[in-house]
Amino acid sequence: MTTDEVRDKYLKFFEVRGHKIIPPAPLVLENDPTTLFTSSGMQPLVPYLLGEPHPEGKRVADSQPAIRLQDIDEVGDDKHTTYFEMLGNWSFGDYFKNEQLQWIWDFLTKDLNLPKEKLYVSIFEGDNSVPRDKESYDIWKSIGLSDDHIFEYDVKKNWWSRSGTPSEMPVGEIGGPTSEIFFEFTSVEHDLKSGEQCHPNCDCGRFFEIGNSVFMVYKKTANGLEELPDKNVDFGGGLERLVAAANNESDMFQIDVLKPLVRKIEEITSVDYKSNKKAMQIIADHIRASDALARDNVVPSNKLQGYVMRRLIRRAAVKMRELKSVGALRATPLHQDFEGLTDHKSIIEEVDKFQRTLDKGLREFDKLENVDGKAAFDLYQTYGFPLELTLELAQEKGIKVDVDEFKKAFEEHQEKSRTSSVGVFKGGLADQSIEVTRLHTAHHLLLAALQKVIDKSISQKGSNINAERLRMDFNFGRKLTDKEMKKVEELINQKIDEDLPVTKKVMLRQEAEKLGAQMEFGRKYPDNVNVYFIGDTDSPFSKEFCGGPHISKLSEMHGRVRITKEESAAAGVRRVYAVID
């Protein structure tokens, strides 16, 4: 069964059941400043799940292309991709669990002809704030599932809200229990690295999650969770995974939309897929994702979506050369390979540009007599050389690399990279220069100054930082005046002149919330959080949840903060840009 066939079957199934088929949103959402890409089918529909009437009625369905950067490190395990399509159907206060679970079961077992014995489901087991989802359990039993095909999991697996678990939800946030469906590939043996017992949420590859029904039942109030008068349904199922299940193919890269890419990579590199699966899956996925971005008019650059696209292309290019051997790095131009994989001029140009960067790195490597861990990490950070490539080059030269020292430098880099302001770049894709670090601290100063000068109720709604400037989105109903922006600037620069200290404290999330530390709306935070204080920790100018990194005192800013632009980002949301001169 092909991808087009599965998509068509799904949309027709729900159209017959009264759903309006809506067009997909673009990969880059113009009116959502909090994210780089559409990462799920639900994302463009959040306003309607929150109560705004949908113009097409109470039942809609679609197939939504999406990019999910948090999966980038998982690519290479047969079932993860950064780019995918998400099939979805929604009920805005109309049907609920009975219809949803029966319908999705009928679609899977009748329209896709999936064997019933290979399907497993999960439900929410309940906790001290929300009861067990007995209703879903009873429905699955009535459909005919036995207890050994129904698994119960906690809030980490079977609860959904934009903020995470019930305890993490802010007042006003909606959420509810979920019921997932899994397909079992009986030909895949359980890997004990994933635990002694295999189960649907095991990571060994025997089970694929192929769909998730979210039941929006609750709203968070000051007194806890209370039930909503109108209950919503949000279903999402990965199209590529459903196609894999329909063909009983445990390797998603063997379905019709991915297999031709894999075969072309085999042809170009003259190596076997089965012996090089991880590298080939990374190349195929990243080129497919870059192709989708190019079709959405994204071009490789050093900013925002273009920066992600650049890193995807360059990662694919390095993996391609690893397959062809190190010697190929010095021989044929990279772009010759990628002309066989894509027609997009912007991708070919980026690969060609990366070739020049690699050439510089190779010349730099040739100058080295010894490769300590720091030198290996500098090659990685500056020229995009993965450790494996440096090791092969070193072997050619007859020298050793201090791998332990490299890993230490890499881990330190990762720790510095855990920053909320650039956290939209998952998987090590963000710039972490000293310029970004200074602008990150300036970002905290800007939010505090806006609250003190303009309105204390202002909160951050989105952000982006690169080496040239910072951008912040915040809730406010009108344009800032020139006088107001000047006052904000003056207050920030006054604090820089005072050379306030910047201090990090690790605290329990609940303790930090009681202190009034600022947090980004909709972001999930762990039980233990970093809180950065600017000024005296007892009466700071600014205190925020944050992963860092930051400068240690404001004199390290080495300049003055200047607001360069202020504009509307969305209804009730303003956007401001600032630089350090």
From TrEMBL:
Its EC number is 6.1.1.7. Keywords: Aminoacyl-tRNA synthetase, ATP-binding, Ligase, Nucleotide-binding, Protein biosynthesis, RNA-binding, tRNA-binding. SUPFAM superfamilies: Class II aaRS and biotin synthetases, Putative anticodon-binding domain of alanyl-tRNA synthetase (AlaRS), ThrRS/AlaRS common domain. PROSITE patterns: AA_TRNA_LIGASE_II_ALA. Residues 1-581 form the Alanyl-transfer RNA synthetases family profile domain. GO terms for molecular function: alanine-tRNA ligase activity; aminoacyl-tRNA deacylase activity; ATP binding; tRNA binding. InterPro entries: aa-tRNA-synth_II/BPL/LPL (IPR045864), Ala-tRNA-lgiase_IIc (IPR002318), Ala-tRNA-ligase_IIc_anticod-bd (IPR018162), Ala-tRNA-synth_IIc_core (IPR018165), Ala-tRNA-synth_IIc_N (IPR018164), Ala-tRNA_ligase (IPR050058), Thr/Ala-tRNA-synth_IIc_edit (IPR018163), tRNA_SAD (IPR012947). GO terms for cellular component: cytoplasm. CDD domains: AlaRS_core. The keyword Magnesium does not apply. One of its GO terms (biological process) is alanyl-tRNA aminoacylation. Belongs to the class-II aminoacyl-tRNA synthetase family. This is alanine--tRNA ligase. It comes from Candidatus Woesebacteria bacterium RIFCSPHIGHO2_01_FULL_44_21. The lineage of its organism: Bacteria, Candidatus Woeseibacteriota.
